[in-house]
């Protein structure tokens, strides 16, 4: 406890770090206040009596911190921006023009960011129109059409762009990744309600206090397991040739290539979830197909058929996304240009093949562990945990929470160590995600 207070005191002593943390908290407070401001022309009391969102809409509501179900001005949150970022990232893999912009450095990054913003506006307008039509019932509308739809679309678009601007300001002048922090705050905001609901359910005769304590203990161990997966690294030793220039010696040191066990981040879960929502979407567009047993089974996330299919898709997408984001050939070429080599492995193609084999070996258990984390909420629901609280036992939300917290702590520790203070831990270092994993997870979260 003394170490904790000493660390907090050191953080407060550093003016730059103190200002960054306070600025981040202020921006997050503005976001949370905005999430409770209802769209003009909407009767909040009628919305409160509506049935809670389920399935994909429930996931979006969690990421938006409950704004989606409240018809807030921030109802769409940053999800349109996340969708636009994923599209631009995929275009950077498949389209040569975008690949060229990725290699142009800062100027290319600015062009891609601008394209992402324009695409965000387009996606927000389309999603805003669909949101007003499907989520706001006629009973909740207090304005005439089409004025209500047009005004709501404009306000939702402005709200999403404002949230995106807040995220960028947090990244520039605050601490941590702004967009990821906003998503994390939205997810955490749903945790107290889920815990209270689960506690009330247990105390009303559904097992009592002991099962609730067991659930909290199980949640703790699931979080620890998730941290191990996110932090898991396979280090490949790299030796650099010794060079003598004048009276100085360069190189001759041994470093490591950290290959993440889960290099794909949350992207496999996001892609797999998009596919698993297809049966439910088909059922909405074709009411006659809702009687199909297969369709009903694949639309129920607690069924074993859904969990098995979901897990297989995650494993396949993990291999796919790792293959397109981690390039062993490029790593081998860069290593050769800098005079580096792996002891016992010939430079060039042999090194690339060796790195590729190591990636393949660690990706298999990584994908299996990721699939286990993804389907844990369904097991929690089967064991009697309410659906709102069960979402925190795994899936995208838990991975985002763990990844964002680790990244933020790593940045705080960097500020402390840079000014010769002790870090957050007495032994070791708080390790954030590597650039590859951070890009993958950042695009999903």
TrEMBL record:
Fetch the InterPro entries from UniProt: SecY, SecY/SEC61-alpha, SecY_CS, SecY_dom_sf
Q: Signal peptide location in the record?
A: none
Q: Where in the cell is it found?
A: Cell membrane; Membrane
Write out the GO biological process terms.
intracellular protein transmembrane transport; protein targeting; protein transport by the Sec complex
Q: Just give the chief location class.
A: membrane
Q: Where are the transmembrane segments?
A: 21-42, 71-95, 115-134, 146-166, 178-197, 209-233, 264-286, 306-326, 362-380, 392-409
Q: May I have one GO cellular component term?
A: plasma membrane
* Bilayer topology: Multi-pass membrane protein
Name the protein family: Belongs to the SecY/SEC61-alpha family.
Q: How does it assemble?
A: Component of the Sec protein translocase complex. Heterotrimer consisting of SecY, SecE and SecG subunits. The heterotrimers can form oligomers, although 1 heterotrimer is thought to be able to translocate proteins. Interacts with the ribosome. Interacts with SecDF, and other proteins may be involved. Interacts with SecA.
Q: What does this protein do?
A: The central subunit of the protein translocation channel SecYEG. Consists of two halves formed by TMs 1-5 and 6-10. These two domains form a lateral gate at the front which open onto the bilayer between TMs 2 and 7, and are clamped together by SecE at the back. The channel is closed by both a pore ring composed of hydrophobic SecY resides and a short helix (helix 2A) on the extracellular side of the membrane which forms a plug. The plug probably moves laterally to allow the channel to open. The ring and the pore may move independently.
What NCBIfam families does the annotation carry?
3a0501s007
Q: What is this protein called?
A: Protein translocase subunit SecY
């Amino acid at each position: 406890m003394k170490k904790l207070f000493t660390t907090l005191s050191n953080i407060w002593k550093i003016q730059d770090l103190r200002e960054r943390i306070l600025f981040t908290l202020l921006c997050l407070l503005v976001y949370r206040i905005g999430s409770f401001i209802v769209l003009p022309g909407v009767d909040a009391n009628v919305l409160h009596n509506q049935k809670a969102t389920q399935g994909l809409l429930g996931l979006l509501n969690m990421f938006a911190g409950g704004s989606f179900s409240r018809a807030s001005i921030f109802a769409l949150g940053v999800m349109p921006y996340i969708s636009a970022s994923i599209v631009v990232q995929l275009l950077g893999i498949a389209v040569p023009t975008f690949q060229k912009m990725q290699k142009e450095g800062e100027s290319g990054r600015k062009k891609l960011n601008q394209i992402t913003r324009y695409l965000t506006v387009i996606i927000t307008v389309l999603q805003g129109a669909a949101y007003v039509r499907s989520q706001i019932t006629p009973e909740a509308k207090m304005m005439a059409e089409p004025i209500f739809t047009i005004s709501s679309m404009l306000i939702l678009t402005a709200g999403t762009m404002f949230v995106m601007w807040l995220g960028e300001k947090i990244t520039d002048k605050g601490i941590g990744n702004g967009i990821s922090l906003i998503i994390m705050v939205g997810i955490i905001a749903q945790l107290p309600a889920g815990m209270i609901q689960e506690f009330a359910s247990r105390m009303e005769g559904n097992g009592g206090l002991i099962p609730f304590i067991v659930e909290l203990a199980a949640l703790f161990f699931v979080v620890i397991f998730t941290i191990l997966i996110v932090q898991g690294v396979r280090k490949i030793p790299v030796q650099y040739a010794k060079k003598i220039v004048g009276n100085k010696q360069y190189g001759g040191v041994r470093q490591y290539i950290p290959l993440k066990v889960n290099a794909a981040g949350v992207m496999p879960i996001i892609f797999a979830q998009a596919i698993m929502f297809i049966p439910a979407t088909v059922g909405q567009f074709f009411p006659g197909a809702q009687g199909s047993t297969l369709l009903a089974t694949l639309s129920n996330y607690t069924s074993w058929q859904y969990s098995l299919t979901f897990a297989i898709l995650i494993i396949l997408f993990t291999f796919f996304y790792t293959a397109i984001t981690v390039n062993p050939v490029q790593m081998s070429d860069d290593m050769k240009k800098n005079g580096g080599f792996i002891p016992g492995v010939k430079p060039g193609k042999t090194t690339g093949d060796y790195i590729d084999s190591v990636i393949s070996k660690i990706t298999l258990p990584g994908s299996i562990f990721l699939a286990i984390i993804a389907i844990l909420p369904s097991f929690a629901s089967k064991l009697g945990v309410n659906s709102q609280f069960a979402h925190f036992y795994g899936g995208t939300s838990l991975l985002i929470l763990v990844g964002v917290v680790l990244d933020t702590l790593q940045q705080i520790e960097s500020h402390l160590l840079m000014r010769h203070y002790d870090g957050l831990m007495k032994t070791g270092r708080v390790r954030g995600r590597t650039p590859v994993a951070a890009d993958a997870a950042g695009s999903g979260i």
